[in-house]
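For homework, think about our next protein:
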Amino acid sequence: MSKSERATHTSSKHSAGRPPGGPGGGPPGMMMPGAKAKNFKGTFKRLIQYLKPYQVRLFIVFLTAILSTIFSIVSPKILGEATNVIFEGWFAKIQGAVDAGIDFKQITFLLAILALLYVVSAVFGFVQQFLMAKVAQRVVYQLREDVNHKLGRLPLKFFDSRSNGDILSRVVNDVDNVANTLQQSLTQMITSVVTIIGIIIMMLTISPLLTLIVILTLPLSFIVIALIAKKSQRHFKNQQNELGELNGHVEEMYTGHIIVKAFGREQESIQHFEEMNDKLYQSSWRAQFMSGIMMPLMGFIGNIGYVLICVVGGIQVTQNKINVGGILAFIQYARQFTMPITQTANIANIIQSTIASAERVFELLDEVEEQKDVNTNVKIENPQGNVSFQHVKFGYKDDAVLMEDLNLDVKSGQMIAIVGPTGAGKTTLVNLLMRFYNIQAGAITIDGKSIDQLERSYVRSLFGMVLQDTWLFNGTIRDNIAYGRAGATEAEIIAAAKAAHADHFIRTLPDGYDTVLNEEASNISSGQKQLLTIARAILADPSMLILDEATSSVDTRTELHIQQAMNNLMEGRTSFVIAHRLSTIKDADLILVMNQGSVIEQGTHDQLLANGGFYAELYMSQFANGGSGEVELD
């Protein structure tokens, strides 16, 4: 895909199935999702700004999270009291006390309170999740909107300097990572912290001594969490790297499976896949094993505390310092104590990853935008297509000038062919003409008006473009042709298809114009795809045309029809043809021969041959190929 085409279609279908960017989720040198943020505090503050409009809802979420957790924490204490009622009634009965027995009314009352607590806790939990889901999705909706609008304001050089995978990773994966954390991890963090504090308070009301025993196991828990997290993080990073490489290899092999088979590289491809799959297996099982032993080890530490609680608690029961219901409630609290600690540790890592993702999104939002158009109301009445380059100076970098002093005068209705070797500046000239890049000096005018005085979208609307690399989206053939002009009627679409000699093959398809093009539009041939892009350009009915060897993918017979259609289309319109084959441009009104960013020769085909210069050498070299006239320049 040429640079000019990538400007309007920033994401590629080819990259949709590829792991974002480089092997680990981003291109070399870029921060991977899951890595630590470079500016945690600054990014966190900026992310908070997106939450500010929802302060009331967040306060309600915070409050309901606390209430839901508190009600669930009180439950074991109520159960303990019910156990005491049963135990005291049973003990009094075996002691032979008069009218002794279990007070079922009291138990029923306590169970009713317990049921009420569970219901209220569930209601608060529902409200909390409902509100947090709304807040999270609204924040992410706004974030996506900002990113989408930003992409529309970025210059072409931004997309030329970054892979599609990296941009997709930031727009999709990183934004989703932020959404998931806001919706799930944030409330989990609140409930975990409240649970830890609440359990400690409830345990203190039962037995300060037993509470001290439980707290003494905390340092050991923190040491285990830190050691495992440190080792597992390295293995998870390796897992992501290997997964990215494997996905990239699979996409390449299946996208180019015809080439693989044609060169007999199946076994080599399979062997390479097995090697990467083995590396992924080694990294994955280590990562999963390290993270999997977290809970058993935490359970082991919890059981140490559990044994100590049972021993000490049993002694206290015999000494009447604590009742049976109290010790049972305390054991439940001790069991619950390690879980929120583990969750808090995991959530801390997730938040690190989330801030890193947010930082990647904000890096995109901070990119330098195209200069805003000043004169948005200036138009060209009845565009004629007179184009002039006047002392144009341009370079993709300030210290590397590509065009030093380019001068060109194109009259209305002329067909201008642009030839030259790879890197000569052919596509660059078109990019400057359509204001994909801004020039450093000089001026480019259309009908006497500098394009800097015109709105970018208006300048681009003056041109129709047919490129060598076709771009068709997933949709019907009718929709793909109609992309050329909004509001086109059915008759106009069919007329454009007929002019491009595409109507016949379209009607031979099972669903005709309603045929849905699949991913990569692989259910039609390359030539047919090219015909549809030509039909789209014909429907647009532009003032000027840009053609990048538009007939290179069709057979000779079809090419004759297309050339005739294109000649009809170009009649009365200024046309710029980037030519790869000299045989197609003999009838051009003006041929520009470019090399190293400069027009070194210009004239008609006969004039340039008579001059015996660079063009003549290129053209005469066709005889070395048997006079085919198919001299490839790119």
Q: What stands out?
A: The two ends are 13 Å apart (CA to CA). The mean pLDDT is 78.
